[in-house]
């Protein structure tokens, strides 16, 4: 059973989101209103400065029970590489999202993609959400002309009670990407989500959905805020995402980053998810 403080926090969060959507939907969620808006740099040296004041992590027993009951992590073994030819050098990958992008994720992905001769363009800003990026993605896609788009959003919408609004924003982002291959990678959870992941599954098509906790299959180490991955945790996330992308590629000369259609398992709704349990410290 959730504590009174937990219920109170979600009541306040829902009220704040409702006010924000009515008056200024394009702004970051009101929880972050005290934070200055600033772009997140694309270099690893600036990643340590990236912080978002998402809600504090839930440590309730129900969260752990929910994780084991509904998340059912997929095997974490690396998938078999695709038989598609390697993507040609000079292709462009655009990666957009919130503060999770620079939590070790983009730093390791950059190494993977640059080794392939791929130009990796990152556009990320802390305290942003799908509503913000539904207005920004059209311009970013037009400027970068990417062959693949990666979206990392959801960290500031985990507790949203207005999933119909999130659904419209998600569909708007996907529409702006057009017929380009794309994948939406969800953040690793630190608290129970309120239906956002099912909403993503129902609205990201034809983009693919990479459910991080389920595919990585193990707890991703976190910073002191217990929310954002450490550099090592982000690198683990990046390695799994890269392996998954390379296994799912069916690309040809025209669309070198074309991906396979979503599997039935990927489209199966699983209800509310909770965080993976944190490993017990070694004695």
User: What fraction, in percent, of the residue positions are helical?
Assistant: 25-40%
Number of domains: 1
Radius of gyration: 18 Å
How far apart the termini lie comes to 30 Å
Largest sheet: 6 strands, mixed
Q: What is the mean predicted local confidence, pLDDT? A: 80
Q: What's the CATH H-level superfamily name?
A: SGNH hydrolase
Give the overall shape. Answer: globular
Number of helices: 9
> Architecture, CATH level 2?
3-Layer(aba) Sandwich
Order of helices and strands: HEHEHEHEHEHEHHH
Commentary on this structure:
The chain has a 6-stranded mixed β-sheet, sandwiched between helices. The model is unreliable at 1-41 and 43-71 (pLDDT under 50). It has 9 helices and 6 strands; from the N terminus they run αβαβαβαβαβαβααα. Helix 3 (105-115) packs across helix 8, helix 4 packs parallel to helix 5 and helix 5 (163-177) packs parallel to helix 6 (196-203). With 283 residues, it is α/β, with parallel strands linked by helices. It has helices at residues 4-23, 61-71, 105-115, 130-144, 163-177, 196-203, 212-216, 231-248, 264-267, and strands spanning 39-40, 92-97, 119-125, 148-152, 182-185, 208-210. The chain has a single domain, classed as 3-Layer(aba) Sandwich (Rossmann fold), CATH 3.40.50.
